[in-house]
Design a protein that fits this description.
By secondary structure, the protein is of the alpha/beta class. It contains 12 helices and 16 strands. Helix 12 (312-320) links the parallel strand 15 and strand 16. The chain starts with a strand and ends with a strand. This is NADP-dependent oxidoreductase.
Amino acid sequence: MKAFVVEKYRKNAPLRLADRPNPQVQDRDVLVRIEATAVNVLDAKIRNGEFKMFLPYRPPFVLGHDVAGTVVDVGPGVSRFQIGDEIYARPRDNRVGTFAEFIAVDEADVALKPRTLTMDEAASLPLVALTAWQALVDVARVKPGQKVFIQAGSGGVGTIAIQLAKHLGATVATTTSAKNAPLVKSLGADVVIDYKTEDFEKVLSGYDVVLNSQDPKTLAKSLKVLKPGGHLVSISGPPDPGFADALKLNGLLKLVIRLISRSVRKQAKSLGVHYSFLFMRADGRQLEQIAGLVDKGVLSAVVDKVFPFAQTPEALAYVETGRAKGKVVIKVA
């Protein structure tokens, strides 16, 4: 099969189109002919080597964390899917690689794609929708009437998180540029802050939840907009001890993570708020629930651009500019 591979960890390292062996189907795997995939900032960070401390992919490896496609084979232990099913998924860590023509995915990570979406639209959802779900539902446990601040509302995670938070009954504030304000308002944002001309920490106060996706300076400011007992969930770091425990990292790595998150945890404690780091996980059952919300019209996919498979490197470069509204999709088949 054809696939785009990373040959060495390096910032801005080029992706090379290569011939790779077709995936081996294990007992509980479904083999998917990839119709479409999507690009995430995570792909660039992994290529740059930012996560190799706890996600040590061995070059050459294939990037890509989103897939929509058709099942063409199943392992003998598979019970939920059959050949011909149209599915979408975020393959689990250490088994990613959707910048390719085929991928084998554990059936536990897979769900039938939303009926109302095209393959391109479905491919845009798994990673960002699971991130929003796990941050707002699993970790923050957002309740009706709460106030939620979602940073970068026009980005991939932001566009889904705004919709989900509104569905959960929250009042939603977000940051974006003035030109993207109509987009985030159409998704349900109640308070829109132009990050180029306004300081959100001077506008917002008494918030129950913050979904942080920006730099350490923004994180520090975000802690201060929370009310006592509020919860900041960060998807951009720093990792916390709970994350290290979940990954069952060795003692040295646990110590490193404890040290790099010490400052933010100390600040959160002094303000009487909670800090959590989220590195989303694959979950096919959650994708089933998300598909249900999509088909009911509660959630919609936001796609900025669709690139042909041959332009996968250009798609990754475009995402790295930070200008994408919603998701960037790659049409594979």
